[in-house]
Predict the structure.
Amino acid sequence: MKAISLDTRHGMLLHLLFAGTLALFLCIFPLKVMATDVDDLFSRGNRAYAEGKYDEALTLYKAAVEKDGFSASLLYNLANAYYQKKDVGLAILNYERALYLDPGNPDIQANLDLSKKEFGLTPEPSTLWKRVFNILNLDKWTWLGSLALAAFCFFFLIRCVTPKTIPRPLFRTIAGALLLVFLVSGTMVTTQYMNMNYGVITGDDTALRVSPFASASSSARIKDGEIVRIAKAYKDFILVKCSAGKSGWIAKKAVEPVIPSQDWSKSAT
């Protein structure tokens, strides 16, 4: 077998290096172009908003969402534009979505409360428990709980294999703190899951019907922008529970889920 010369090896290495660099460049460049396009749409939307061209701003913000998906800042600006147009339901909806992605954000919370007050809706009271709950969103609470459990298992394993490595009082303190974090995170995750089945009314003076049929009589009316909990769905209607204790069936098109991926075709608790 003929041996490969040193120069040939260097040449092959250079070709491989060049090919790899080119492939990496081709992979990264479209992403940079896409990010630039989205940033440009967002910036143009902000300029249109500053000039009072709210319809144009909404069009640009929606285009940015379609290209790059949801983000807290984009939803926040989208909500501000709807607020300026006095579109109650869509303003509240996008503030709620922005707050879900960035819980505890004071600007989003302040604008959400202001919108509810101006449009005659009752803001939820801000309790200490709710402020703690809103420190993190569902994903971050899940990660925190998982890390706390993993750390507890790690320290427990070390304690079992080499008991003298970690003194018992120190181990008890660390283990207790990690278990406390895990329990708090688990409680927050459970509560977040329970709060996933809610939406915002986006239709004016929506009828609350006694059964899931268009011919059914109306028992009450729901304001645009009101938050409702979803009980179950039947064909083109959804059974909702309002904050005032009222419940009934409304048309699916009259409500938008705060979490866009929420599937209401199945019954929900």
